């Protein structure tokens, strides 16, 4: 019994890590530009496809694949910001959301049209594949442990980055009042571009981690939608919140899939987010602000 | 029956006491001004009266009616209108539409009647339009009737803000720094309008203001605040001479 | 150049502002009424869809364009309308009653969805409506005894007063009449206190409430109205497709609906119709263009998604006022010729201010 719960928890946490990474990606963008990037899931999907090509067509080893993919996706992210988001700097938030939705469609469409990618489902070879460890009656898939481990490593790296770099404070300034940030000498547009690059890189990383579970196909980005509940639960705009929220959603889903009737697993995340929004909109780590008139 | 009374109003935000047991009374038909250095809590008091904030202590009584627990739209329905320090107009609408929204509390038509645009609705619309036209005449806004608010200069927007408040046909008008951002001519116009509001329209005015000339010119009584607490009350001249007030603005002896 | 010299207040309130408008809308009316004669079967079918989506567009426009709320879950209301109509028709309820019920039931659901809206703004509201859409879709799929689940439900043609409206023309006129009624209803609301209250909520909630607009009441009203109109569209949709299943009411459909109002032009009722027409016609154009494209890019669904996304991106960047906005600019150019100034419709450059502090 206990081992079953533990196994569920492990699966939930592993899945939650992926949600956490996607949520992390767009919380970064949200903190900097107050833009909600609905294309985050599709960036993740594109990253997975780049990884697929890198590892199968170009034959790169796993760790090099990750590095190359993240770098390429960072470039894609920066390019997206430069071409699509920069012209609409200052537009109302809803409009910018719609433009990111448009970007998502374009990404999905293009991936479907590339020969060799199309609408098929693929697999990325990983060094963990089917290995399992047995620890005291609990069967742990090495795959899942690897996902959790790599996510933790990435979070640690990001924490160090934001702690010891001026980028973090610059991000907050631009998110609260762009004009004032300009006046303070912050290169707002460059900061935004770098945030998008970073975000896309994180999305790519998530895509690679997710690939063994859902396989690589053009609709895998829809999992990214679950990152919204994750971000809301953790507190929109909070980086640790995105991680915690993602883990919570992952675990809730795993438990719902097992203990509740069929169909609840798919909607569990959304039911949770509705409850959180009604009862506690600022989430776990979030903050509420109020306009001063 | 007292017209308007604030009894021991207090509010704190966390550990900061923004308004500290402030009490005052406003008589019908007078112009009552609240002055004080920045951060004294003047706009906060307005927000308390308009019930945008809930007081931690104390209560507000309007025409012998306790206003505790109302929401802002109910406050408007009682006949209290306000302007905002940072101008909260409806940017994507014309001046005329902004003023017409001011008439909202007088709209007696139901959803279904409006959906079908019954003759009753049409008559009501024409009546609203006429009422708003009177405000436009009063404030000389005829030139800007059809202009989108978003493109108007600051001085005109302040006047539109005032017009919108007047369109509600209030009994009590709260003006939050009516002359801020206005040049001397516009401030002069504002002074004339406040006097006209008092004498011709018979509306009681409760005002927050920094410009001492304007204050002396139009106010019947003045209340001075500092750091959330009331420090002096009386006519403009009395309050300006009061030692505590001088100390608040200029600092005490070294 | 046209000058409108106003001599009485009624001119502001009237439906048609001047003779020219009467002429052009009259012409449009005649063309539309004569459609079964000049339009072939294919075009008639497209017109059906355009009218249906226009009705939904009106609903969404009132909510998003005029009240400033966000809804990424309108397909849920479409579904409620469609299934209500299908179930009631199967139970033998007359059409007039069933479509009114579809509207009423959708409105009720709209009120429920509107409840979070009272406390949530912006992205939070978007996520709440999105979550709602997914949940409704799942409920429809799981409640098989009522809705037939994934196997869907068949819907017979409309039967009014004993006659079955089986022909294209009959259904067309039904849609036309309903679309016109919905349009007029919206126009009437917009020139009344309710419409002004909606716009006030969109532009500044705080001052709207200080002017006496009860936020809760009007936001709920807006959601209910929007849902009701969408429900009517959903009922017609059910008859048009003759077969409904949960897959027709997914999140992607919700996004398609929002695209209608954005591409059409947020803040203008005409935008709903123009957006609907654009969204219906675009896939047809893409199919036609497919013949001219090289092999390899022939994956139609990919092309459609790409073009759709590209349209959204390009319109928002280059024509934020949408199709109707572009039409306004063209018309103003002609009206003011040769005095049209390039900067007339230019947006004031705005710097992003945190909407969390709005």
- Quaternary structure annotation: heterotrimer
Number of distinct beta strands of chain A: 2
Mean pLDDT of chain B: 88
Helix content of chain A: 55-70%
Q: Tell me the strand order in the biggest sheet of chain A.
A: 1-2
Rg of chain A is: 19 Å
Per DSSP, the total helix count of chain B is 10
Describe it for me?
The complex is a heterotrimer of chains A (293), B (254) and C (358). Chain A has eleven helices and two strands. Chain A has helices at 2-33, 40-57, 62-85, 93-113, 142-163, 167-176, 178-183, 188-214, 227-234, 239-259, 264-279, and strands at 132-135, 138-141. In chain A, 53% of the residues are buried. The model of chain A has no long low-confidence stretch (mean pLDDT 83). The model of chain B has no long low-confidence stretch (mean pLDDT 88). Chain B has helices spanning 42-49, 72-78, 95-102, 111-116, 119-139, 154-167, 184-199, 212-218, 236-241, 243-250; strands at residues 4-13, 16-26, 31-35, 57-62, 65-66, 80-82, 172-176, 204-208, 221-226, 229-234. Classes of the chains: A mainly alpha (293), B alpha/beta (254), C mainly alpha (358).
Could you give a quick summary of the protein structure above?
The complex is a heterotrimer of chains A (293), B (254) and C (358). In chain A, 70% of the residues lie in helices and 3% in strands.
């Amino acid at each position: 019994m206990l081992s079953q719960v533990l196994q569920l928890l492990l699966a939930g946490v592993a899945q939650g890590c992926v949600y956490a990474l996607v949520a992390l990606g767009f919380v970064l963008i949200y903190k900097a530009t107050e833009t909600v990037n609905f294309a985050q899931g599709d960036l993740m999907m594109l990253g997975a496809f780049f990884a697929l090509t890198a590892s199968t067509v170009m034959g790169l080893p796993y760790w090099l694949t990750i590095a190359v993919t993240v770098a390429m996706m960072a470039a894609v992210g920066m390019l997206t910001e430069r071409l699509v988001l920069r012209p609409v700097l200052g537009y109302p938030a809803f409009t910018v959301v719609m433009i990111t939705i448009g970007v998502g469609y374009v990404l999905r469409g293009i991936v479907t049209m590339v020969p060799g990618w199309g609408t098929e489902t693929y697999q990325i070879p990983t060094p963990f594949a089917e290995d399992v460890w047995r620890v005291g009656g609990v069967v742990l898939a090495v795959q899942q442990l690897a996902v959790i481990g790599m996510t933790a490593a990435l979070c640690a790296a990001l924490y160090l980055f934001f702690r010891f770099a001026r980028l973090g404070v610059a991000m907050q300034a631009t998110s609260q009042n762009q004009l004032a940030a300009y006046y303070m000498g912050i290169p707002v547009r460059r900061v935004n571009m770098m945030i998008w690059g970073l975000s896309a890189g994180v999305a790519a990383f998530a895509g690679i981690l997710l690939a063994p579970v859902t396989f690589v196909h053009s609709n895998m980005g829809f999992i990214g939608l679950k990152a919204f509940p994750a971000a809301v639960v953790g507190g929109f705009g909070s980086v640790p919140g995105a991680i915690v929220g993602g883990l919570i959603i992952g675990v809730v889903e795993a438990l719902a899939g097992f203990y509740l009737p069929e169909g609840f697993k798919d909607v569990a995340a959304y039911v949770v987010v509705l409850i959180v929004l009604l009862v506690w909109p600022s989430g776990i780590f979030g903050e509420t602000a109020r306009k001063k008139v | 029956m007292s017209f308007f009374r604030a009894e021991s109003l207090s509010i704190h935000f966390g550990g900061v006491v923004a308004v500290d047991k402030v009490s005052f009374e406003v008589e019908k038909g007078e112009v009552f001004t609240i002055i004080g250095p920045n951060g004294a809590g003047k706009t906060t008091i307005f927000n308390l009266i308009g019930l945008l904030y809930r007081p931690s202590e104390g209560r507000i009584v309007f025409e012998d009616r306790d206003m505790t627990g109302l929401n802002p739209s109910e406050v408007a329905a009682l006949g209290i209108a306000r302007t905002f320090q940072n101008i909260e107009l409806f940017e994507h609408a014309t001046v005329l539409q902004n003023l017409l929204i001011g008439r909202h509390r007088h709209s007696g038509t139901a959803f279904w009647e409006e959906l079908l645009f019954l003759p009753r609705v049409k008559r009501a619309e024409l009546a609203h339009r006429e009422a708003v036209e009177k405000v436009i005449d009063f404030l000389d806004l005829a030139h800007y009737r059809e202009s989108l608010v978003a493109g108007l200069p600051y001085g005109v927007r302040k006047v539109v803000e005032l017009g919108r408040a007047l369109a509600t046909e209030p009994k009590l008008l709260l003006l939050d720094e009516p002359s801020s951002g206005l040049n001397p001519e516009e401030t002069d116009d504002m002074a004339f309008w406040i006097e006209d509001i008092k004498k011709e329209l018979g509306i009681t005015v409760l005002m927050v203001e920094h410009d001492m000339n304007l204050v002396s010119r139009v106010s019947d009584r003045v209340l001075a605040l500092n750091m959330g607490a009331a420090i002096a009350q009386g006519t403009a001249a009395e309050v300006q001479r009061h030692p505590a007030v001088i100390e608040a603005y200029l600092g005490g002896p070294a | 150049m046209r000058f409108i010299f106003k001599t009485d207040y009624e001119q502001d309130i009237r439906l048609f502002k001047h003779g020219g408008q009467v002429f052009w809308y009259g012409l449009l009316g005649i063309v539309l009424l004569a459609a079964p004669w000049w339009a072939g079967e294919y075009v008639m079918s497209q017109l059906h869809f355009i009218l249906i989506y226009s009705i939904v567009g009106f609903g969404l426009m009132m909510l998003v364009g005029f009240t400033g709320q966000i809804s990424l879950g309108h397909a849920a209301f479409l579904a409620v309308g469609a299934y209500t109509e299908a179930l009631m028709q199967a139970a033998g309820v007359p059409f007039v009653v069933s479509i009114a019920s579809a509207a009423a039931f959708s409105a009720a659901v709209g009120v429920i969805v509107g409840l979070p809206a009272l406390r949530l703004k912006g992205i939070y509201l978007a996520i709440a409506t999105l979550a709602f859409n997914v949940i409704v879709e799942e409920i429809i799929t799981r409640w098989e005894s009522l809705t037939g689940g994934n196997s869907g439900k068949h819907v017979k043609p409309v039967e009014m007063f004993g006659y079955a409206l089986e022909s294209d023309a009959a259904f067309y006129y039904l849609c036309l009449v309903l679309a016109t009624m919905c349009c007029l209803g919206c126009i009437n609301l917009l020139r009344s206190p309710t419409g002004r209250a909606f716009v006030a909520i969109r532009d500044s909630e705080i001052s709207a409430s200080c002017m006496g607009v009860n936020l809760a009441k009007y936001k709920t009203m807006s959601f209910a109205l929007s849902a009701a109109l969408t429900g009517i569209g959903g009922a017609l949709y059910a008859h048009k497709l003759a077969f409904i299943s949960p897959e027709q009411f997914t999140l992607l459909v919700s996004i398609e609906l929002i695209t209608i109002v954005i591409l059409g032009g947020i803040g203008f009722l005409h935008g709903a119709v123009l957006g609907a027409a654009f969204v219906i016609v675009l896939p047809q154009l893409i199919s036609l263009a497919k013949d001219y494209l090289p092999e390899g890019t022939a994956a139609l669904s990919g092309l459609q998604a790409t073009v759709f996304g590209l349209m959204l991106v390009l319109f928002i960047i280059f024509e934020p006022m949408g199709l109707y906005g572009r039409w306004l600019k063209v018309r103003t150019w002609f009206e003011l010729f040769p005095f049209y100034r390039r900067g007339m419709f230019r947006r004031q450059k705005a710097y992003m201010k945190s909407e969390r502090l709005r």
